[in-house]
Automatic annotation (TrEMBL):
Pfam families: FMN_red. It comes from Pseudidiomarina homiensis. Keywords: Flavoprotein, FMN. It comes from the Bacteria. This is Transcriptional regulator. Its cofactor is FMN. The keyword Acetylation does not apply. Residues 7-185 form the Flavodoxin-like domain. GO terms for cellular component: membrane. GO terms for molecular function: electron transfer activity; FMN binding; NAD(P)H dehydrogenase (quinone) activity. Belongs to the WrbA family.
């Protein structure tokens, strides 16, 4: 294992909204001195794979934590992410992710279009892998102030009329989630 404390931000994004959340989370990770590793799953011409590398089999064993994000797809995660987890039995058997901190994030077009079910569903494979799932505590003032995305179950963005651009609260909450997971990873490694 390399000496850098790496936090994988594994996400898919077709049009860039989930990617903006991934970037805000990466900023939060970087604040702690840990290294954010933006990774995606195989896709063609979409925002995520136009910019970021597809996750490598070795990345899971080598990371100190993992944060997963997907657009809301009928109240669930993007199928390509589910497919990825179905190919991780080897890492599951080895316990590659056991006791490593984790969190989730999503973007949807409408406020009540299934964000929470998507966030909770994304936590399930992470718990199967033995990860320590983290959310956003209500001690974050932005969680009370937001009138769009942001949830105790994870970071989020609601497009409404705003398109892909995060508002102030969504951006702050995503950053805080990245920072929180990275700080936990650093403590666990100490
Ligand atoms: C197949 C499909 C299913 C979707 N299902 C939902 C949904 O259940 N609820 C919702 O609010 N938006 C839904 N959307 C909209 C996306 O979640 C939304 O546009 C998201 O912000 C896109 O993220 P991206 O820019 O990262 O691709 C769906 C989009 C597609 C293509």
């Amino acid at each position: 294992m390399s000496s850098a404390v790496r936090i994988i931000i594994l996400y898919y994004s077709r049009n860039g909204a989930t990617q903006q959340l991934a970037d805000a989370i990466a900023n939060g990770v970087s604040k702690t001195g840990a290294e954010p590793l933006l990774r995606t799953v195989a896709c063609e011409g979409d925002a995520a794979c136009q910019r970021d590398l597809v996750i490598d089999a070795d990345d899971l064993a080598d990371c100190a934590g993992l944060i997963m994000g997907s657009p809301t797809r009928f109240g669930h995660m993007y199928s390509g992410l589910q497919k990825f987890w179905e190919q991780t039995s080897r890492d599951w058997l080895k316990g590659a992710l056991v006791d490593k901190p984790a969190a989730v994030f999503t973007s949807s077009s409408s406020m009540h279009g299934g964000q929470e079910s998507t966030l909770l569903a994304m936590g399930v494979p992470l718990l199967h892998h033995g990860m320590v799932l983290m959310g956003i505590p209500y001690t974050a003032p932005e969680l009370q102030q937001t009138d769009a995305g942001g949830s105790p179950y994870g970071a989020s963005h609601v497009e409404h009329a705003a398109g892909a651009n995060l508002n102030h609260y969504e951006s702050k909450l995503a950053e805080q989630l990245g920072e929180r997971v990275a700080r936990a990873a650093l403590k666990l490694q100490a």
